[in-house]
Specification:
By secondary structure, the protein is an all-alpha fold. Among the domains are: about 25-60 and about 75-90, no CATH class; about 255-305, no CATH class. The protein has helices at about 70-75, 95-125, 130-145, 150-165, 170-185, 190-200, 205-220, 225-235, 240-250, 255-270, 275-285, 290-310; strands at about 25-30, 35. A two-stranded antiparallel sheet has the order 1-2. Strand 1 and strand 2 form a beta hairpin. Helix 2 (about 95-125) runs antiparallel to helix 3, helix 5 (about 170-185) packs antiparallel against helix 6 and helix 8 packs parallel to helix 10. The radius of gyration is 30 Å and the shape is globular.
């Protein structure tokens, strides 16, 4: 039997916020019955001969601002003016533009709802309200069934609840959802880590190692696979093998902040505090958004200062 060892946390991922698509806007000219695009300085549609073009604001072009040459100039530059338009109507061969814009807006709206539910679920998870987090992640899955992060968040929550309640059904559900996540994103780092931890918790450590080794074999140039193998080996006190995998990861990607952070963790566990601080600082130089590393560096500095100021013990005979 393997000894009881600490597990690294599986924390749901915060969603990224999608940008709304830019959809062309047009205005109808009162006399030409032709859409005139908004002008921006230096753009293709900028006409310096029209008053207000240099301002960059949206304006309607008035009849007094046109002469014959100006009209011909705009007709040749604006593709939507190549044929006459009746008022408040687009030509048939331009209707697809509006349809495409509506489709993009609708799909982006669905993604926004999914991200919102994921974000609320992550907030509930971090507060320890796992049942509520589960509800939000289920809603996100119904909204966008092709988002691998949603499946990871859902599996991570089932994993947490199943481990706390020692419920094998929840653990099996988490395992199935982890696999669904990997079907959608075969190189999902967090999902590989979560599934490996789950297999170890179930007493199937050989399957956990096989999962990560197969992932590494399928992606010989992927540093993240080596990092996760190093972490799992370090948990089983196979430190030399963990160092080997970690060195391979850094050789593949010297700018991988996760590799430097884990290297610092290994140095700290072996008592090499100064080297651990240097590795943590290297990781922060690559990614400053790691508040836990700032805390580790602070704690290590306190330990070093206490060790330097501690009085030397003397023995007397």
């Amino acid at each position: 039997m393997h000894p009881t060892i600490p597990r690294w946390p599986t924390i749901p991922r915060w969603p990224t916020i999608p940008r709304w698509p830019t959809i062309p806007r047009w205005a109808y000219h009162p006399e030409m019955d032709c859409p005139v695009y908004k002008r921006h300085p230096g753009s293709l549609w900028d006409n310096p001969r029209l008053p207000g073009a240099e301002s960059g604001f949206s304006t309607f072009v008035r009849p007094t601002q046109f002469n014959g040459s100006t009209m011909r100039f705009n007709l040749s530059r604006n593709p939507l003016c190549l044929q006459p338009l009746s008022k408040n109507r687009l030509p048939k061969n331009r209707l697809w533009i509006v349809a495409l814009g509506c489709f993009i807006t609708a799909s982006s709206g669905c993604q926004m709802v999914t991200k919102s539910n994921n974000g609320k679920g992550v907030a509930m998870y971090q507060q320890g309200r796992y049942a509520e987090a589960l509800q939000y992640f289920e809603q996100a899955k119904q909204t966008d069934a092709a988002n691998p992060d949603t499946y990871y968040n859902l599996a991570s929550t089932y994993h947490k609840l199943g481990s706390a309640a020692k419920d094998p059904k929840m653990i099996d559900t988490a395992e199935a959802i982890y696999n669904q996540c990997l079907d959608l994103a075969p190189n999902h780092v967090d999902c590989h880590r979560g599934l490996a931890v789950l297999l170890v918790d179930k007493g199937q450590s050989d399957k956990g190692f096989a999962l990560l080794k197969n992932w590494s074999a399928r992606n010989p140039g992927l540093a993240d696979a080596r990092i996760e193998l190093a972490r799992l080996n370090q948990e089983f006190n196979q430190n030399k093998l963990a160092e080997q995998y970690l060195d391979e990861a850094l050789a593949m990607d010297p700018n991988n902040y996760r590799a430097w952070a884990f290297k610092g963790q290994m140095r700290e566990s072996s008592g090499e505090l100064m080297q651990a601080i240097q590795n943590y600082q290297q990781s922060l130089a690559l990614n400053a958004k790691q508040p836990e590393l700032y805390q580790r560096i602070g704690a290590l500095n306190v330990r070093l200062s206490q060790a330097s100021t501690a009085p030397a013990t003397t023995t007397t005979r």
